[in-house]
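Q: Here's a chain of 423 amino acids. Please give me its 3D structure as tokens.
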Amino acid sequence: MSFLSPDGKKPDDPATDIAAGARLIPRITIQAFCEHSQTAQLVESAIHDRRMSKVALTTHNGGIDGAIETYKTNPTPNLIIVESTLSPEQIPAALEKLAEVCDASTRVVLLGHVNDVQLYRELVRSGISEYIVLPATASQIVSAITELFASENAAPIGRTVGFVSAKGGAGGSTVAHNVTWAIATALRQDCLVLDMDLAFGTAGLNFNQDPPHGLADAVLANQKVDQTILERLMSKAASHINLLTAPVTLDRTFDFEEREFEQIIEMCQNTLPVVILDIPHAWNAWVRHTLATIDEVVIVAEPDLANLRNAKNLADTIKALRPTENPPSLVLNKVGLPRRPEIGSDEFASSVECELIGQLQFDAALFGTAANNGQMIAEVAANNKINEVYRAIGMQVTGRQVGHVATKSSGLMKLPSFLKKRA
């Protein structure tokens, strides 16, 4: 099942156009020593990048000299970021002194103000992990750290897309499941649906599945779950579609810590290239954290005032949680409900300040038949235009229409790991 193993996929397979997910930096400790307050602010702003959600970052004054004084009596972290305004001739000697007080496993990123080839060569001999020429951006710093702590030639990880309803009954689950079907059929891409509404989830009903195990077994097993066990807990719903369903039981409450789902989601990303999260209409620590760390967020709303208010609150909060990422997208569902006054789609999207990527017309007979039969809309009415909307949403969230391209940050020079102490 793992998409990371070689399978002879043809280069022209549509699946190759799927944008990969962002790899989160592992739990490491970073200490930065800056000479200017502006540089310290730049480094501190990097912590707001969702890739840094596990990182412990602190900033200090003093540059290389400050770092040397600190580590004479303190252990070194996983990564040190130092700023230097020294001349190119003085930097190597200063780094030699820093090497004497650091552990051999510690890596160093140097922030400098000189773009000089001779300096680069000397830094290579010194063993600096990365050199970033200022002025730079927080994204460049995060990208440099990501490359340092991702294993060499690491395979791409799956893209995570979360669907959340602005209001109960807005149809976020139905949209998530039908978009999954569209991605699987149009792109021939393996997808996984995580039904995160453990008490009332509908993924099993909508796909006409009743598996004995699902997401709850994976989460409640905690550290005991590995890749093999996770794959056994998944159920096959259709070609290219896999499920981790909700138990839909009320014999216990499902109260989770903020990072309870984090390990499961990461393992799913290592297994399948598209992971669709059916996120319940709730607000607690783990929902907030999940929305902050996944690749794409889609808000599903009906065109009325209560949905507008909630969608605006959600959008503003998600933007604040993900300041370096694209804002959430918007899907309007149940448009054209008979005898209901509605807010126009353009006005709704403008008020929420999100890109409208799909409008789904209300059709009671069609959606009711699909729900009662445990089928997707494409199975009930393959030629209905609604399927084109689902397909367009699927293309958008998988990066087919927005040009997500993984590129290395400019201004960076990748160098060997730091502190090979000279004999």
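Q: Can you summarize the key feature?
A: The first strand starts at residue 29 and ends at 34.
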